[in-house]
Amino acid sequence: MLVAPDKFKGSLTAPQVAEHIVAGLRRSRPDLPVVSAPVADGGDGTVDAMVAAGFARLQTGVTGPVGKQVAASFAMRGETAVVELAEASGLRLLPDRPSATTALTATSAGTGELMRTAAMRGAKHIVLGLGGSACTDGGAGMLTALGARLLDEDEKPIPPGGAGLLRLARIDTRDLIRVSVTVASDVDNPLLGSRGAAEVYAPQKGAGPSEVAQLQAGLAHLAEIVRRDLGVDATDRPGAGAAGGVGFTALAVLGASMRPGIEILLEQLDFDALLAGARLVITGEGSLDRQTLHGKAPIGVARAAARAEVPVVAVSGQRQLTRDVLRRFGFEDAYALTDIEPDPEVCMAQAGPLLEELAVRIADAHLEQSLSRNR
To answer: Is Transferase given among the entry's keywords (predicted)?
Structure first.
C-alpha cells in the first residue's frame, strides 16, 4: 500500500499524517508492506515532503516578512533545490496578526535569500513553491536579494513592501543571480484586476480597501517599469498573482516556468516508480472540498494512480464533497475524521489517533478487495 497524503493544516504535517496512517494500517495487518510518500502542492509543507522523500534539509537565517531575522529551511538533492516561500516570507512568520501596516510593508526578501543560498551551494535548478505569503510586494524583495537593484528617482533602493513599489524608477538586473526556476503553484490569478494579487489576497494579509488600492497601484507601476526596462509583459499570465505578485517577478524577470505544484512534487518523488508495485493508494488533506478539485495534492495523486490503474482512497479531517463527486475524480472511497468524531475541534486536537482508526477501517474494507483484484 502506498500512503501519499498532504498535510492536515493546523494539525499535522504531511509526514505526520503518513506516519499515523501507516501505524493504523500495521495495527490491522502487522506484516502489510507499506511505502510512505507524503506529498505537497507547492505551499506550506513542501520542504517537509521533499525531506521525507530523501532530500537534505538545509537551514539558514533570512530576512522575515517584517524585516526581522528568522530561521528558514530549503531542501536540496544534487543540483535541485526546493524553496518554499512560506518558510521565509509566510503569514505564519508575522509576530502578530496581519495588519494594514504589515500588508503594505511585508517583503519577500527572505525567499530570495533562500534562493541565493541554494545557488551558492550548487543548485542549478530551483523549484519555488508559492503559497501562504505575507507580502504583496510583487517579488521586489526577492529580486533585491538575488542581486537586482530596484531604485527610486534619487538612485536609492526603494523601501520594502508593496507600498514602496510606487517609488520605483528603474530596475537594474546586471548583477542578478541567474538560475533555472520552476514555480510550483496551483494559483492561476493574473497580477492585476479583480482577480489579481491585491484584490483577492491582500485582504487576507491585513489590507483594508485603501491598502488594497495602494497595493494594486504599486503592482501596476512595477509591471510598467518591468515592461519598459526589461521588455517583458507578464501581468496576464496565469499565476502572475501568486504570493502577492512573486509569481509575476519569477515569470517576467527570472524567466521561470510555472506548473501545478503537485505535478512537480510527484516527479521529484519518482511517484510513477512507487506506483508500479502498489495495490492501493491512500491520499488526502485536511479538508476535501471544492478547492481540492482544482489541482490540489489529492487530485494530482489520484490522476497519477489512475494512469497506473491503481485504486485510490482519500482521508481528510472533514469532507464537504459527496462520495459520488469524488468517484468522478478517481477516488474509490473517502473517509473523514468527522465520520468518527463529529466535533471539529476534537478532530483537530486528536487528529493522529483518529487517523489511525480510519486506517484500520481502510485496511479492513479495502485490503482483501485490492488483493483479490490484483491476484
So the answer is: yes
